[in-house]
Amino acid sequence: MKTKHLKIGIAFITASLTSVLFNNFSFTQWQRPEVPAMESVNEASRISHAKELLGGGYKGSDAQKIEGQKALNEAILNKVQTQLPAKFKSQARTIARTVISESAKYGMDPVFVLAVIKTESKFNPLVVGRHGEIGLMQIKPDTAEWIAKKFDLPFNGKKTLQSPSANIKIGMAYMNYLRAKFDKKAMKYVSAYNMGPTNVRRLLAKNVKPVEYNSRVMKNYSVLYSNITSKKPHTVAAL
User: Entry's PANTHER family (predicted)?
Assistant: First the structure.
C-alpha cells in the first residue's frame, strides 16, 4: 500500500514540475534565427545603369522587360544560390545582399555585377588567377589595398579577398573608380577592369577598341537577364 502511495506521489510531483517548466520555458529558444530580409533593388539606379551599358539596345531588352519586378532581389538570390560551389551556398543570402546594397551605393545594376563575377570567377570564391587575382571579382592584392585605402574599406592582406562579401565590396569600389575615370563609357571602364586603365588608353590612342573582355561580360549580362525573364511571373514572385 505504501509503495502504491509513493508511486502516486512521485507521479504528482513529476506532473507538477512538468507543468511549471512548460508554462515558464521560453519557446524562443526553439525558434530558428531570423533570416535577414533581402533589400529591394534600387530600380532607378538599375535602369539608369542598364541604359548606360546597353545604349540604344536597352529598348526591347530583357533588362527593360523586367522593369518594376519587385521579386528581382529574390531572383538575384536564386541565381547566386545556384551558381555558388556547395561549400559556399550557406553564404548565398549574404553575398546577394552585398551585391544589391553595393550596387545601390554606386548606382549600378546588380545583374551587371553578377555578370562580372560570372566572367571573372564563375562564382567560385576560391579561384586564384595566373597574375595573383583572388576571389569572386578576381582582384590583385596590391590593387585591393590601394582601393581599400582610397574608399576607406577594411583590408587585412590577401585573406580579406578570400571573403566573398569583402571581395565584392572592393571589386565594386574599383569598378566605380574606373567608371568615373572613363566618364561612364561602359566599354572603356569595363575593359579597364580587366586590363587596367593605362592599357585601355594605349589601345584607344591607336584607334583600337578594347572589346574582347567587355563582350564577354555583356554576353553574360544578357544571358543572366534572359534567364530571369524566362521565369514565369508567379515562379519568380514565389522565390
Answer: MEMBRANE-BOUND LYTIC MUREIN TRANSGLYCOSYLASE C (PTHR37423:SF2), SOLUBLE LYTIC MUREIN TRANSGLYCOSYLASE-RELATED (PTHR37423)
- Whether 27 maps to a domain, the answer reads no
pLDDT digits (tens, 9 = 90+) for 143-182: 999 999 999 999 999 999 999 999 999 999 999 999 999 9
CATH code at 214? 1.10.530.10
For cell 517548466, the residue is: 21
Give the separation between CA 21 and CA 18, rounded to whole angstroms. Answer: 5
| b/e burial code for range 58-97 (CB count within 10 A of at least 16 → b) | eeebbbbebeebebbbbbbbbbbbebbeeebeebbbebbb
CA distance 64 to 58: 6
CA-based torsion, 207, 213, 218, 219: positive or negative: positive
Secondary structure class of 116 (helix, strand, coil) = helix
**144: domain range?**
43-238
Residues composing the chain? 239
Residue 238, pLDDT score: 34
Q: What gap in Å lies between CA 236 and CA 69, rounded to an integer?
A: 9
- DSSP 8-class letter at 27: G
- For residue 60, CA distances in Å to 65, 209, 218 come to 7, 26, 16
| C-alpha grid cell, residue 203 | 589601345
* Total count of domains within the chain: 1
* H or E segment to which residue 94 belongs: helix 92-106
